Each structure stands twice: as C-alpha cells, then as structure tokens.
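We modelled the chain as a single entity of 125 amino acids. Its sequence is:
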Amino acid sequence: MHNALKCTLLSLSLLAAANACAQAPSLAKCTRSANLLACVDPDGNAYSVATAGSTTYMRGFEVSGKRYWAQTSSRYGQLTFFTGLASDGEAWVGYSRRVGWTTLNRFSSSGGSSGKFTCSRLTGC
C-alpha cells in the first residue's frame, strides 16, 4: 500500500495520535468538529475521519498515486476490523487488537501488500 494509506491506518489504530497531528502544523493542518476530523498534509494528501457509534468512516486523496480511497472500521470490544477500497481498484482488509497500551495490527491488500506492526502509546509504532 502507498505511504499515505499506511499513515492513515496508523492514525486509525491510535486515533489519539490524530489529535496530536492536529496540533503539529508541520505534519498536517487539521480541522475538527464533534465527530469529524479533516486534514491536509504539506504534500497535498487529504483525509477525513468521521465517527458514528462504534463505526469509523475515512475518506482521502493520495497525491503520489493520484487516487481516492475510502475505509470503514467497526469496533467490537478490543478488536477493530477495517476494509477499504481505492479508486484504482485496490482493496484491503485488516484488524487492530488492543492489549493494554499496545495495539497489534495486521493488514492485507489486493495489491500484494501485507504486514503486521505493533504500536504503543508510549513509544509509537
């Protein structure tokens, strides 16, 4: 998957980090309301995150790939499952599992990418 999409997946697993990004103008400029966060980074990549109950909806535009993408995530206790689709036809699925202050993440895409990574609230990803 492309770098902007990977960063967005990281944002999902640590939505609190999105608040930090909103306060760091060198990373991205963000606008926030009660349940919507919209950001644009210095390269022109843009994304928005909206929440409705335990479901999160993300949409964005990736400059390097010149493509639009959308992702939906649903939370069930400590597990969050997500699926996404890009305008070039790439699709992806994955999950995040919280264990204390650590998040275990796995994803796979139709473009051949797959991986796993661990994030901590103390040390990052």
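As a brief sanity check on the tokenised model: The beta strands are 29-32, 36-40, 46-52, 55-62, 67-76, 79-86, 91-99, 102-109, 114-120. The chain has one domain: 3-120.
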